[in-house]
């Protein structure tokens, strides 16, 4: 495995301090999960803005780090046993960071797997379904005259919101204590504002979710990280 300075990605997104973890990202719900985790965990890092256009994510330099051409991705020169590690997929990155720092993922086996269950819930359900909702409600899919796809993802978003709302009953955070599950889930709930979809999915009728999202974004680390890396003017 190459070092950061010799990795192909460094020729386009150069590390200023190769001793730090390098984050390659864009401030989408998937991207900010990692910047939030890094801020919450106090890991020194550098953030590199990677645009969502093919010119960036399908460039040879980025594909050398993530062959799936999606943000976020990281290179940590101080990985397991002091060796460099390269990772993509936000869930894998957050689990790695939690294990690296010993923070926000319980060492108690039962609580650990409870947390990982909700991490996987976001990766397999909440993120993909809300992403499709955004496409068919706000972006190109909204122009389709056939409402089938739009109605499907509105309905699925409502169902998933009800699952989260029930899980939050009597709790401030998804598994009781603040964890990487919250860093995974809350940014996607917040995306409903960007999609202009809160009304159509009944967001304000939910008992627990709105206060949960407000509580999450009131955290200083989240407030700082939500726009990292900043979008260039």
Description:
Helix 5 packs parallel to helix 7 (180-195). Helix content is 48%, strand content 8%. It is globular, with a radius of gyration of 18 Å. With 233 residues, it is an alpha+beta fold. It has 2 domains: 4-104, Glutaredoxin; 109-219, Glutathione S-transferase Yfyf (Class Pi), Chain A, domain 2 (Up-down Bundle). The mean pLDDT is 97. A 4-stranded mixed β-sheet has the order 2-1-3-4, covered by helices on one side. Belongs to the GST superfamily. It holds the Pfam family GST_N.
Helix-strand sequence: EHEHHEEHHHHHH
N-end to C-end Cα span: 35 Å
Helix content range of the residues, please? 40-55%
CATH architecture annotation of the largest domain = Up-down Bundle
Strand content: 5-15%
| Number of discrete helical segments | 9
Q: What global shape is seen?
A: globular
Outline the low-pLDDT stretches: none
CATH topology name of the largest domain: Glutathione S-transferase Yfyf (Class Pi), Chain A, domain 2
For the record, the CATH class of the largest domain is Mainly Alpha
How would you sum up the major sheet? Answer: 4 strands, mixed
Number of domains: 2
**Rg (C-alpha, Å):** 18 Å
Number of strands: 4
